[in-house]
Amino acid sequence: MKRMRIRRRTVYNNNGRYNNIQRILVTQYKTPQPLYLPNKTITMPFALRFHCLLLLFYAAVPLSQAALVVTIGDSYAAGTGVHALREQYDDTYCYVEKDTIPGGKYASTRGMQHVVTACAGDTIDTTVAQWNDLQLRYTDEVANQWEGSVIIVSTGGNSALTRRGENFEESLARVLRTRRFHEDELNQVANLDAVQNELVDFYSQLAVDAGEATVRVMGYPLVFNSNRIKCFIPGIRVKEADFFDSTVVELNEVIVSAIEEVKTTFSNFDIRYVDVAPSYGSGACSPFKFRHIRDINVRAPVTSFHPTQRGYDRSYGAFLRTILT
């Protein structure tokens, strides 16, 4: 059983001007839902594995400490890509799927409230705005530094810019319409140092504001993950796919470095990186329908090159391992 409330918030740009309106999706799970176990992780008889994980799961975070599960950030936090059609999303403006993303699954197993402010296209700056808005809305949690809450973050991809000044989404579009994308130096990401500094500032803010929370920073999966022979997306060659995936690796390294830097100052802050890339198998280049990353989706272009539900299930498995260990 669950109850969902939709709250609206206004976001302003750096000049204080009105930018857009986003909806905060709040789901309260009244009773814990069955524990979800990702596929393809069976290393012992299922019944034994289930009971072992169940005991570890409930020992890891006592119910008495349960507060909120908060999901903030960009499209990879929002669940963009789960559905093929825009109208299928809980929030059609931000392309949010609240229930089957890692935060939703975790909240349902714990009987916790899931709050989603993530939105497709958001940068680090707008993720900070999401967090500041939550600070205003949840005064009880603020007073306790969000003790017992779990905060899931995915941000940085839309802040990384190439030498052309193009972001993540614009670079993906260029891969499709140009040849030899990988040979043009203008397609290299040029501001990773600035991205790292922004992330350090944001994670440090979380350490101050939510020092008693559990924070998990989700890495990005390899988008194309091509085989050595062929990428099955028309117009994309293996070398181009590999070049773009290498920028994802660089971005993930920046995220890790930012977390490590923050940990040197806030050593007791429970913030960890969730490496999802090894958990993903078939990327957008795969010819199979059960791929973990969508290829081109002309019906809802924003969802192109984002995880499918199978992909988000893999992300949840990686997330859960960082909670249980």
TrEMBL record:
Nuclease recorded as keyword: no
One GO MF term: hydrolase activity, acting on ester bonds
GO biological process: lipid metabolic process
Transmembrane domains' residue ranges: 46-68
Keywords: Membrane, Transmembrane, Transmembrane helix
Signal peptide: none
InterPro entries cross-referenced by the UniProt entry: SEST-like, SGNH_hydro_sf
Coiled coil: none
Source organism superkingdom: Eukaryota
UniProt xrefs under PANTHER family: LIPASE 2, SGNH HYDROLASE-TYPE ESTERASE DOMAIN-CONTAINING PROTEIN
Name of the protein: Uncharacterized protein
Organism: Fistulifera solaris (Oleaginous diatom)
